[in-house]
Amino acid sequence: MRFTDHCLRSEGADVILATSSDEKYPPENIIDGRSETFWTTTGMFPQEFIICFHKCVTISKITIQCYLVQTLRIEKTASKDPVDFEQCVEKELQYKEGELQREEFSFPEIQATNLRFIILAGYDAFVSVHRVIAEGIAQVF
């Protein structure tokens, strides 16, 4: 059994929705596999983005690398369309000046076709998301 990072453009992932857009820091940066690039919000909360896998995947761990994110909620759906999301976790993230936040969430293998990340609050008016990693195995229908 091979574990994969499903949140990579090279694995077929897409960011199908983002509530903010800055052409210098597009949401696609979240799934390029690099921590140096990022998506930035343009103020006000909540902010959200949805990553679509285009197939059902099994996820056992989600890692997010971000900056200035205070409260984060992660939701999932196994529906073909990005609807009927269920909450997986909501957490207040710790912040250290000048350091990228890295938060890991382990699950007893959730099934998902889409993940929605909702940034409910930030430590500043603008926050950034550098990378999302969803470890697991692909399901075949």
UniProtKB/TrEMBL annotation:
InterPro entries membership: FA58C (IPR000421), Galactose-bd-like_sf (IPR008979), IFT25 (IPR033558)
An example GO BP is: lung development
The entry's localization annotation reads:
Cell projection, Cilium
**An annotated GO cellular component:** centrosome
| Keyword check for Calcium | yes
| Keywords of the record | Calcium, Cell projection, Cilium, Metal-binding
Transmembrane stretches in the record are: none
Q: What is its main location?
A: other
Functional description taken from the UniProt entry: Component of the IFT complex B required for sonic hedgehog/SHH signaling. May mediate transport of SHH components: required for the export of SMO and PTCH1 receptors out of the cilium and the accumulation of GLI2 at the ciliary tip in response to activation of the SHH pathway, suggesting it is involved in the dynamic transport of SHH signaling molecules within the cilium. Not required for ciliary assembly. Its role in intraflagellar transport is mainly seen in tissues rich in ciliated cells such as kidney and testis. Essential for male fertility, spermiogenesis and sperm flagella formation.
- Subunit notes for this chain? Component of the IFT complex B, at least composed of IFT20, IFT22, IFT25, IFT27, IFT46, IFT52, TRAF3IP1/IFT54, IFT57, IFT74, IFT80, IFT81, and IFT88. Interacts with IFT27. Interacts with IFT88.
Task: Please report the name of this protein according to its UniProt entry.
Answer: Intraflagellar transport protein 25 homolog
- Organism of provenance: Salvator merianae
Q: What is the lineage of its organism?
A: Eukaryota, Metazoa, Chordata, Craniata, Vertebrata
